[in-house]
Amino acid sequence: MKKVLVINANPKPTSLCKSLAEQYISVAKEQHKVEQINIGDLNFEISLDEGYDKITDLEPDLVDFQKKVQWAEHVVIVSPVWWGTIPAKFKGAIDRAFLPGFSFKYVGGKTIPEKLLKGRTSELIVTLDSPPFWYKYVTGNAIYKQLKHSILGFSGIKNISSTYFGPVINSNSDTRQAWLNKVAKLANRIK
């Protein structure tokens, strides 16, 4: 039994991402302990006006966000592609919560920080309005690079899979049901 955190990175109250996250949760909780974060439900100041020079106290929702990430053994991020990458509110949560001392630590004399979230795995489920092959191979797959390398990998979380659904904009109910079925299969794969 694994501790699984499912993050719905779409801030909208209703969305395909939310449906996919709920489908994943409903299947995963049959065999695992599951927690959920809906980015749209979190209340916090997005801007990191001082960068990491002056750490602003975390709001209760971001403290909870950190606790759930630390608790988790497997983190599932369900995110739409907005302007090529993750939504601003999700990026704001990362900026504010993945702080030095939480997700990484600078070590004197070394250029590469210590990764403080090692031992965890992640899985990305991405929705987009363009065809996945176009996004991945023509436009450069920025969401994957940002999440896998610059955020998760930098913190020590090893991404084990990425699944893309699109184009959403002209999908029909049969296509969306097929996507929900695929997410159920992904949730059944957790070991």
UniProtKB/TrEMBL annotation:
<dbReference type="GO" id="GO:0005829">
    <property type="term" value="C:cytosol"/>
</dbReference>
<protein>
    <recommendedName>
        <fullName>Flavodoxin-like fold domain-containing protein</fullName>
    </recommendedName>
</protein>
<feature type="domain" description="Flavodoxin-like fold">
    <location>
        <begin position="2"/>
        <end position="183"/>
    </location>
</feature>
<dbReference type="InterPro" id="IPR003680">
    <property type="entry name" value="Flavodoxin_fold"/>
</dbReference>
<dbReference type="InterPro" id="IPR051545">
    <property type="entry name" value="NAD(P)H_dehydrogenase_qn"/>
</dbReference>
<dbReference type="InterPro" id="IPR029039">
    <property type="entry name" value="Flavoprotein-like_sf"/>
</dbReference>
<dbReference type="Pfam" id="PF02525">
    <property type="entry name" value="Flavodoxin_2"/>
</dbReference>
<keyword id="KW-0560">Oxidoreductase</keyword>
<dbReference type="GO" id="GO:0003955">
    <property type="term" value="F:NAD(P)H dehydrogenase (quinone) activity"/>
</dbReference>
<comment type="similarity">
    <text>Belongs to the NAD(P)H dehydrogenase (quinone) family.</text>
</comment>
